[in-house]
Structure formats: structure tokens, C-alpha cells
Write a structure and sequence with these properties.
Layout (H helix, E strand, L loop, with lengths): L2 H15 L4 H9 L3 H9 L1 H4 L14 E6 L5 H15 L3 E6 L2 H9 L5 H7 L6 E3 L4 E3 L5 E6 L13 E5 L7 H11 L7 E6 L5 H8 L3 E6 L9 H11 L3 H6 L15 H7 L19 E7 L10 E7 L5 E6 L7 H15 L3 E5 L4 H10 L5 E5 L5 H13 L3 E3 L4 H7 L16 H15 L11
Parallel strand pairs: 1-7, 1-8, 2-5, 2-6, 6-7, 9-12, 11-14, 12-13
Antiparallel strand pairs: 3-4, 4-5, 9-10, 10-11
Helix pairs in contact: 13-14, 15-17
């Protein structure tokens, strides 16, 4: 008997068993062999709670499971993928925040794919960690990818995908877009997203799609969690914002105590450039233009914040362009900085130097931007540095030249008094903007003035 037929027979048996009195259930289960009991225990759909099972509606392309911690998102995702792999030979993308997390949680974890294979006593799976590939006996293949490396999904084609903890992906938008372009095998390509809620533009975009179906729930929905754990979490976080997000699975659009709110940002928004036209030439429309840079912490291709800001003749400050980039070498992001400076006619590049100041200056010099470079050192936390700039926004003294979804989401995640609760692991775009605007706030324009004696 095939795996699919065995699973269907077991499901029918359990459905007949469930309405019976507890004593009769125990009697019938006692008649099963140990091997049959293990299979009944492995039958996930018999014991899963609401929100863990695939939607019955057949018209969906994306299944978004957004729920609190401990809800059982990983088990549900692994079970869905495991069953799909047995249906017919298919290609599956497994996308985690990092390759290491994908291996540790999605493949080898206690609720991962290999654990499910052991429950069913299926021993002919081939897991090749060096390749990041899992092969089913019938030929299906699942390959690990990382939300840190969007280009890894540029090219491969897949039938299905499982995206875990999307809110933690460093290159979330680019990774998601490349994945969707590659979901073109078969007639009914589908994606499951399992994530704890966190305010980010991509999550909002996925929720708004007409072919997205959303399920979810609270940590307390999982009856397998100990009462002691539930009581401890409720006593500590019950009624708080973090409890609503991490335990109740609620997507909270406004971060409590955030330096920026969506209303503040909307009030600051202007046309697609500061004056409605193409990027200005040097000196024509702005007294001064600065490129702010928040370099990555190392040379491993992490994101680099690059934001262009200008000061108009009336003293207002303008956020002109966000060209932040991830996944590039130091030479790669330095060339992006130089290109932005040339495009806007910037007079200064201001870059944070805490992470290897000499290296930052050397790569910017090598890019031959032809612009003065100023290195700044962070003596305060990111939120503390951002507070004076946020005040200028609140007073209407800063304008946004259009829409900057990724930058705006990071701004709304900076919390007064310290901390960051926005998308990604670090507010690199927001930090670059703060450096540029701070420079424009604390320095003179450099224009000649007449002083009467």
C-alpha cells in the first residue's frame, strides 16, 4: 500500500474513532499493533488544531500562517511539505532566514521534515547537508534557500515553497519576488508562509493579495504545550504589546513608543521628488545635498544603508532617494554610494565608521566618487541619534520625496529610549537617513554671507 493510501485509511479510521466514548476509543486502540499505533500517532491531520491544516478552498496561491510562538507553525509547514513530496515528483523551495536556521529548524528540528519521516518509519530519505537538499524516495527534491541571499532564488524553478519566519529575512522583498518568479512549474504552484507577525511592508503586501488565504492563532491553541509554560508566558507578557504579537499572533501596525508613526510619515510625504521633477543638478534647487551611509558590519554582503538627503533654500530638509542595497561586496556598495552622489550632485558623503572606519574610507575612496567623505562615530544608540530628527519630522521641517516603504517601516520600528522592533535585524536605511539629516541640521550651508559692521 502506498504512503498516500495508508494515510487516507488511517484518517478514515481516526474520524470514526473520535465520536466514540473515551473507553471505547481505548479499547479499539488496544487492538492495534505497535506499528499501527505509531502510524495513528503520526497522522497529523487527526490531532492538528484549527489553523494548522491546509485551506479547503482550492483557489489560493499563498497560504499565510501568522500565529504566536509555540502555535505549531513549523510542524504544520513540515507536514504539508512532507505530504506534497509523496504525491508526485516535485521541486520544493525551503526558504529560511538563514541556511543554518533552515537546516536546524525546517529539516533537522524536532518538528522538521526528518522528524516526520521517522514518525512514519520512512528511512529511504536522502538528506545531503552539503548541498542543502532533501530527496524523497519517489524523486521529489526540497532545496534550502536563505532570506539573506535573494539572488540564490534567481533562476531555479519550483512547484511549491515553504517560507519560514519571513519577518526575519534580511532581503525580504527581493527574496520573495525572486521566489515568486520561479514558482512556475506545474499547474498549481503554491507557497506556505509560516511566521510570527511583525510590521513590514512585504507582509502587508502578501495579505492584500486576492489569492492569499490566512490562518493563525494563539500560543494557547497548542494543547501540547505545558500548563506551566502557558501560565508563565501569560503572567509575564499578558496584556502587553509583545504578548499580543508573540503570543496572540496579532499584527500590530503601530509600535508602542515608536519615534515615527504612519501619520507623521504621511504628513511629511511630498511628490515623487522634492519639487516634482527629475533629480536636480548640483546647486540648482538645494543649498546642500548629503549622502548618508550605514555600512554593513563585515564583508559578508550584509545590507548597506544609502540615503540621499538635501536642504532647500527655505531651510526645509528633504529625503530624496533610498538606494540601500544588500548582498554586495564593499566595492559593490561603495560604487552605489558614488553613483548616488554623482546623480544628485552631492557635496558630502557621511558614513558611520564604527565597523572598520579605515576600510569604509578606503572602499569609498576607491569608488572615485569625487566627493568629500566624512566618517562619523556612533557614541549613542540608533534610537537616541534618531530622536532629534524625528522631532523635525513632527514639526513639519522634513519632507519625503515620494514613497519609501522599506525606509518608512524601519523608522516606525525605532522606539524612544532605545530598541528596534521593525523589519530586518537592523535599521540600516533609517540609520543612513539619520546620519545625512543630522549633518544637514548641525552644519552651515557653506554659502557666502554679508555681515554688516
Amino acid at each position: 500500500m502506498s504512503y498516500s493510501e495508508s494515510r487516507k485509511n488511517l484518517a478514515r479510521y481516526v474520524r470514526r474513532l473520535m465520536p466514540l466514548p473515551l473507553g471505547e476509543q481505548r479499547r479499539r486502540l488496544s487492538l492495534l499493533s505497535p506499528a499501527e499505533l505509531l502510524q495513528v500517532d503520526a497522522l497529523f491531520e487527526a490531532w492538528a488544531h484549527d489553523g494548522q491544516l491546509p485551506p479547503s478552498d482550492q483557489g489560493w496561491r499563498t497560504w499565510l500562517m501568522m500565529a504566536g510562538r509555540g502555535f505549531g507553525k513549523t510542524r504544520a509547514g513540515a507536514e504539508w511539505i512532507y505530504a506534497i513530496g509523496w504525491s508526485r515528483p516535485v521541486r520544493i523551495a525551503l526558504v529560511a532566514a538563514t541556511i543554518e536556521e533552515g537546516r536546524r529548524i525546517m529539516i533537522e528540528g524536532t518538528s522538521g521534515l526528518l522528524s516526520i519521516a521517522r514518525r512514519w518509519r520512512h528511512h529511504r530519505f536522502i538528506w545531503e547537508p552539503s548541498k542543502g537538499e532533501l530527496t524523497w524516495p519517489r524523486g521529489s527534491k526540497a532545496t534550502l534557500f536563505s532570506g539573506d541571499n535573494a539572488d540564490g532564488l534567481r533562476g531555479p524553478e519550483h512547484d511549491f515553497a515553504w517560507c519560514d519566519e519571513l519577518a526575519k529575512w534580511r532581503q525580504a522583498d527581493a527574496t520573495w519576488d525572486n521566489l515568486q518568479f520561479g514558482l512556475r512549474r506545474g499547474r498549481r504552484a503554491r507557497t506556505l508562509v509560516t511566521t510570527t507577525p511583525r510590521t513590514m511592508p512585504l507582509l502587508q503586501r502578501i495579505r492584500s493579495l486576492t489569492d492569499t488565504i490566512e490562518t493563525g492563532g494563539r500560543t494557547t491553541d497548542n494543547v501540547n504545550l505545558s500548563r506551566e509554560f502557558i501560565d508563565a508566558m501569560t503572567a509575564t507578557y499578558g496584556g502587553t504589546r509583545i504578548g499580543r504579537q508573540e503570543l496572540d499572533g496579532e499584527l500590530i501596525l503601530e509600535v508602542e513608543g515608536a519615534l515615527w508613526t504612519r501619520d507623521m510619515i504621511a504628513a511629511a510625504r511630498g511628490p515623487s521628488t522634492a519639487f516634482g521633477g527629475p533629480p536636480p543638478r548640483s546647486g540648482e534647487e538645494f543649498m546642500r545635498i548629503v549622502v548618508g551611509v550605514d555600512p554593513p558590519a563585515g564583508t559578508d554582503g550584509d545590507a548597506c544603508g544609502i540615503v540621499v538627503c538635501g536642504k532647500a533654500a527655505d531651510g526645509t530638509l528633504h529625503v530624496l532617494e533610498d538606494v540601500s542595497v544588500g548582498g554586495l561586496s564593499p566595492e559593490g556598495w561603495a560604487n552605489r554610494v558614488a553613483a548616488a552622489a554623482a546623480r544628485w550632485g552631492a557635496g558630502l558623503i557621511v558614513a558611520e565608521a564604527n565597523n572598520g572606519g579605515a576600510m569604509v574610507k578606503s572602499v569609498l575612496d576607491a569608488a572615485e566618487a569625487g566627493v568629500r567623505i566624512k566618517l562619523v562615530h556612533a557614541s549613542k544608540g540608533k534610537a537616541a541619534r534618531a530622536e532629534p530628527v524625528a522631532l523635525k519630522f513632527e514639526r513639519g521641517e522634513v519632507r519625503l520625496a515620494g514613497d519609501f516603504p522599506e525606509l518608512e517601516a524601519q523608522l516606525c520600528g525605532l522606539v524612544a529610549g532605545g530598541g528596534y522592533e521593525g523589519p530586518g535585524r537592523s535599521p540600516d536605511r533609517a540609520d543612513a537617513m539619520v546620519w545625512a539629516l543630522t549633518e544637514l541640521l548641525v552644519t552651515r550651508s557653506g554659502l557666502p554671507r554679508i555681515v554688516q559692521l
